[in-house]
Amino acid sequence: MVSIDEQRLRDAFMEEVTELLENLNEKLLELENDPENKDVINEIFRFTHSVKSESALVGFKNMSTIAHKMEDIFERVRRGVLIVDRSIMDALFSAYDRIMELLTAAQNGEDESSFDISDVVNPLLAILKEQPAAAAPAPAPAAPASSEPAAAPATESSSPTDGEKFGTQLHVTMGEAKDIKNANFTDSEKEQIEEGIGKGETFYKIIFHLEDSCDMRYPRAYLVYNNFVNSGHVIKTIPDVNTEADDAQFGTVEMYYLTDADAKELQENADVDQVDRLELYTVDIRLLNDALGDSGATGVSVDAAAIAEAERKEAEWAAQMAAQMQAQNTSAPTAAAEPAAQKTEEAKESTPVAAAPAKPAEGGQAAHHPSHGSGTAVQKQTIRVDIERLDTLLNLVGELIINRSRFAQIYNRISDKSDINEVKAELEDATNELERITDLMQTGMMQARMVPIGNVFSKFPRMVRDLANQLHKSVDLEIIGENTEIDRTVMELIADPLTHLIRNSIDHGLELPDERAAIGKNRVGSVILKAYQEGSSIYVEVSDDGKGMNPDIIRDKAIEKGICTPQQAAGMSESEIYNFIFEPGFSTKKEITSTSGRGVGMDVVKTQIEKLRGRVDIQTKVGEGTKFIIVLPLTLTIVEALLVNVQKNIFAIPIAVVEETIKIEREDIKDFDDYQVYNLRNETLAVVYLSDLVGLDREDENSDLYIVVVSFERRKIGLVVNNLIGEEDIVIKALDEVLKNNEGIAGATVLGDGQIALILDTSTLVKIALREINKMAENYDFYDENAVSYGLNQLYDMYNEQRKAEKAEKEKAKAEEATAAGDGEDGGEDETPPDDGPDMSNMSVMDFGNNM
Amino acid sequence: MAAENTNAAANERQLILFALGNGSYGIPIENVFEIKKMEEITVVPKAPKFIEGVINLRGNVVPVVDLRRRFGMATVDVTKRTKIIIVEIGKRQFGLIVDSVAEVVTLSNDQIEPSLPTVSGLKAEFINGIGKMNDKLIIILEISRILQSTEDIKVEDNV
Question: How many angstroms away from the CA of B27 is the closest CA of chain A?
Answer without folding.
Answer: 20
